[in-house]
């Protein structure tokens, strides 16, 4: 009895440390600094929850300060060339409290408090590993997650989208909230098929996905954080059993292929399989929901661009990239210097955190003409860095692009007179950018 009590106390203490380091401490520092006029605080805290939330002016205000802005919590980069330099440099790693980056007591506390449940921001997740482990791990994974594999999913993705649109038509109601009824169901169904999950578990996966995706955000309150970890634990428990089932009964899904993949006798370990499946689940779900929802809003609010797509349907893929550029699903990503370095000609000390504002890089006037204009014909729309850059370039980029293109094209083909109603609402998250509600009249 005493042993179980001690275990519960230690478990709760570790959870508290994880919250303090990943959410409580950053939230306190950023909130206080914003009140003192720190532009970094404004970037992260301004406007979530409002559909009119547009950081364009703030991006330019930070950009005007020079290639690197020194905020209270970290340095901030907004120019695309500087951000690419940070993201591709071997001198910078993921993990704000990385042990090899001078994290000190925070790194030690983070290591002690690490959970044995999958989390996309802790090893062995691809988001949280570095070479040489990352190189080996990604080489194995990319044997399965190829562009050809994604294109083979295109036909099935179109079938799923049409089935969902059929359901909307059969519902008998012309008014619907598109986020839970379409934007969320399309990617969770595709991901379920990638993972070999039966369709009857789709609703359960959807609920777990909503909670697990919050692990990619910052500044969660204690209650939300505990709910997020509960969702991760539920998914992790389910996944362990699912991997055992796949090992005994492999299918033709991508997760079965990952279980079977070999490279010079090497294979993915069970923790690595859970990590990659969980990353596809947590990151691939919410970001694609946001991509589709953000695209619906942009196309609705810019009917001239929708008219262009009706006349030139070959531009739908480019339109998906333009949505990713102008209103990306992820606002920023961070890196920490693991040794003294130089970025944009400025000395950077070991342990320095640099937040790279992906959404600002996507509006860099040095790269994009009229960067704040939504233009589905933009020739270099694909030059955005919404999928990051360098060795941590998003593994699911091709899948997200395909789902965004298919999801948007088929929706507007089926309901060409779709109108968004009052009541659209953004997620209250700080890093993840998308809609929680998109009420619409279908036509």
TrEMBL record:
User: Record keywords: Heme included?
Assistant: yes
Q: Does the keyword Iron apply?
A: yes
**Can you tell which superkingdom this protein's organism belongs to?**
Bacteria
Q: Which UniProt keywords are listed?
A: Heme, Iron, Metal-binding, Monooxygenase, Oxidoreductase
- Pfam families cross-referenced by the UniProt entry: p450 (PF00067)
Q: Which Gene Ontology MF annotations are present?
A: cholest-4-en-3-one 26-monooxygenase activity; heme binding; iron ion binding; steroid hydroxylase activity
Swiss-Prot/TrEMBL GO biological process terms:
cholesterol catabolic process
Recorded hits in PANTHER family, A to Z, give: BIOTIN BIOSYNTHESIS CYTOCHROME P450, P450, PUTATIVE (EUROFUNG)-RELATED
What family does the entry list?
Answer: Belongs to the cytochrome P450 family.
Question: Which protein are we looking at?
Answer: Cytochrome P450
Tell me the organism.
Nocardioides turkmenicus
């Amino acid at each position: 009895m005493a042993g179980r009590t001690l275990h519960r106390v230690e478990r709760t203490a570790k959870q508290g440390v994880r919250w303090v380091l990943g959410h409580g401490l950053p939230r306190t520092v950023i909130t206080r600094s914003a009140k003192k006029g720190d532009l970094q605080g404004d970037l992260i805290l301004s406007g979530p929850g409002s559909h009119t939330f547009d950081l364009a002016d703030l991006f330019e205000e930070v950009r005007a300060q020079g290639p690197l802005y020194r905020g209270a919590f970290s340095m901030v980069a907004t120019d695309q060339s500087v951000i690419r330099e940070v993201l591709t440099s071997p001198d910078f790693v993921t993990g704000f409290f990385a042990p090899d980056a001078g994290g000190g007591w925070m790194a030690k506390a983070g290591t002690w408090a690490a959970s044995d449940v999958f989390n996309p921001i802790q090893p062995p997740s691809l988001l949280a590993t570095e070479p040489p482990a990352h190189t080996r791990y990604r080489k194995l994974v990319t044997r399965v997650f190829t562009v050809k594999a994604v294109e083979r999913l295109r036909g099935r993705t179109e079938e799923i989208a049409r089935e969902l649109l059929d359901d909307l038509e059969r519902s008998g109601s012309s008014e619907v909230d598109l986020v839970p009824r379409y934007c969320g169901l399309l990617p969770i169904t595709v991901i379920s098929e990638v993972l070999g999950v039966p369709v009857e578990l789709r609703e359960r996966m959807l609920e777990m996905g909503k909670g697990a995706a919050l692990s990619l955000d910052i500044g969660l309150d204690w209650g939300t954080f505990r709910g997020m970890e509960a969702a991760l634990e539920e998914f992790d428990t389910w996944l362990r059993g699912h991997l055992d089932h796949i090992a005994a009964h492999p299918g033709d899904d991508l997760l079965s292929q990952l279980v079977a993949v070999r490279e010079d006798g090497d294979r993915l370990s069970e923790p690595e399989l859970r990590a990659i499946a969980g990353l596809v689940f947590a990151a691939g779900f919410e970001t694609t929901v946001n991509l589709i929802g953000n695209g619906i809003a942009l196309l609705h609010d810019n009917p001239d661009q929708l008219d262009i797509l009706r006349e030139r349907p070959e531009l739908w893929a480019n339109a998906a990239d333009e949505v990713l550029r102008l209103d990306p699903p992820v606002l920023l990503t961070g890196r920490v210097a693991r040794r003294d370095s130089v970025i944009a000609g400025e000395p950077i000390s070991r342990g320095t955190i640099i937040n790279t504002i992906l959404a600002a890089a996507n509006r860099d006037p040095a790269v994009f003409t009229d960067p704040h204009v939504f233009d589905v014909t933009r020739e270099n729309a694909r030059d955005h860095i919404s999928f990051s850059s360098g060795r941590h370039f998003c593994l699911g980029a091709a899948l997200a692009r395909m789902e965004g293109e298919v999801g948007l094209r088929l929706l507007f083909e089926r309901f060409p007179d779709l109108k968004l109603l009052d009541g659209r609402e953004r997620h209250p998250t700080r890093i993840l950018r998308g809609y929680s509600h998109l009420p619409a009249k279908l036509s």
